[in-house]
Amino acid sequence: MKSQEILKIAGAVVLICAGLGAFYWQTTRAQAEHVANWGMADAKEININSKVSGRVIEILVDEGDSVKQGQILARIDKDFQEPQQRQAQAAIAAQVAQLQQLILSSQEAEGNLDAQLQAADAQLNRAETALKLAAKNEARYRELLSASAISAQTYDVYKTQLEDAQAAYNAAQANVESARVSLLKNDENKAAQAALREQIDALQSQLDSVNLNIKETEILAPFDGIITKKYVETGALISSVVPLFAIQDPHDNWVNFKIKETEVNKYKIGDKITLTGRDGKLKIDGTVESIRRKADFATQKATSERGETDIIAFNLKIRTNNDAVWSGMRFSLGD
Question: What is the spatial distance between Cα 121 and Cα 165, in angstroms, rounded to a whole number?
């Protein structure tokens, strides 16, 4: 055999061996990782949306920035809300002025009207007493006239007195009725005041809503955290459905593991467990927070030739709450 052919065969054998070695190494590594139960970290993260529509006029943070709760992250223009605010304020001022006028006129009239009604009642009482006396006198002198005991001229005097008393009584009744009507009108004034107050309250609610919208043009951090994503740039038009940022809480995190059904009984809620990072140096203490009682998927498929069955996985959630844990990191169970 020629030396060149021998070299070719030797090279091929080397390549095959190298390939088998790489395959064995990867398989061994995958098995080791599988045995080690590698899990992936996750953390509390939410999108921050604007409650009002408008144009982004200022962005004050960038991805990776640490922020405090209540810190201003961005500002939205107020071009739509401010005219509404001025309109509501003007409408309230006009209604308040009208209400004040009604109150003043009502207060000024109320005392006078009460005094007028009392005077009219007193006058009516006097007119009624005078009418009864005149009626009694007229009746008595009418009998005397019938008995020819007095002259017709004398009777006419008492008859005229009765007519005058009746007229005075009727006038007194009219005065009382007029005073009562005036009081009723003043009560209507009070009803108008109540209606105006309701309108002012409704306008104030509108103004409060506008003021709240103006306040919402400043986008605030909902909690202490880290900006993990910025979705918009200055000048962008947004609505309430468009997120501006994603924020993550570095102290609210956990690691999810898929535990084989054959191993799940090893763990209980409340167990203290040490997790190891991919570099082998990072050690994190955690607590088993939950074990999902519904299977996720088969971690190992059966091999029909060997008569095996699928091995099902259950999610094991280990609470860490450590700022060294970043979402997406991988950890293994145990040291």
Answer: 16
